[in-house]
Amino acid sequence: MMARKVSIFLKRSVVAVDDWLKPIRILGTVFGIAAAFATGALLITILNVKYYWESYSFCMQLSCLAQFPDAFRVQLDLLGAGGKLATLVALVLGPYAALKGYLSTASAEAFGNHIAHLNFFESFIRAELDKRERISKGAVDIYSLYRLMFPEADGRAIHASPEFLRRVGFLCNSIEASSQCFSSAETKFRFDVHRRAITQILLDLYITQHNSPRIDFLEAEDQLLDFLCMLSRVFGERGAEVAIPKRLYR
Asked: Which of 71, 80, 104, 217 counts the most CB atoms within 10 A of its CB?
């Protein structure tokens, strides 16, 4: 429990510090340090103006100018210390601000790529569904299917995920099982069992197929299988294309 509280405290502290260390604040801090030391040097000069007025007279000769560093030694040292401190802050926090800006830009670019990739995928799927009249337009949950096929969602993925191909493989296994039942003399093919199994596997692929009559279901199954094969060919890696087994019950 204590470890969790410490973890939460540290996380909040890091977030607070990260929020505070914005580039404009870092720049303001650098200028603020320089201004503070310059103001201090100016105040020292003002407080000691009587001393300077009585000890020195206006002179433009080189010998007079050579006395300037000695006369204003404290102020010059203070300005030098302020400059060094401001430079140190800039050197320490400047790269962090640059890195934070780069990460923000990279994050925005990745998000833009993701949106563009998602829009392309949605347009592609809708175009393919329009070619298959047996698949209703609302049967495919496009966004869930996209997350299944491209789980990284960074807009750079071009190949379908192994999980998508694995679930399509389950569909092929179910079709093979139904075909074996249909061709076997020892077992009896039951269409309702086949339909229930196919419907459940399609749900795992975010495709909804209703319990329509046998002929209608099988015709829709034809186009759904063709649709999934097309996805595996287009988005699957070379050699990972899905081959739907022969359906003897068809």
From this structure: 217
Supply the angle between the helices 73-130 and 23-47 in degrees, to the nearest 10: 170
> How far apart are the C-alpha atoms of 151 and 128, rounded to whole Å?
22
Question: Residues 88, 29: contact at Cβ < 8 Å?
Answer: no
pLDDT at 14: 46
In sequence order, the 6+-apart residues with CB closer than 8 A to the CB of 235 are: 149, 158, 159, 160
- Two structure tokens written together for 157: 């993925």
Lookup: tokens for 8:
């939460």
How many CA atoms does the CB half-sphere of 104 hold within 13 Å? 10
Are the C-beta atoms of 241 and 233 separated by less than 8 Å?
A: yes
Tokens representing residue 217 in the block: 């279901």
Radius of gyration of the chain (CA): 37
pLDDT at 156: 61
Position 73 scores a pLDDT of 80
The count of other CB atoms within 10 Å of the CB of residue 217 is 20
Q: What is the mean pLDDT of residues 109-126?
A: 85
> For residue 147, how far is the Cα from the chain centroid?
14
pTM for the full model?
Answer: 0.61
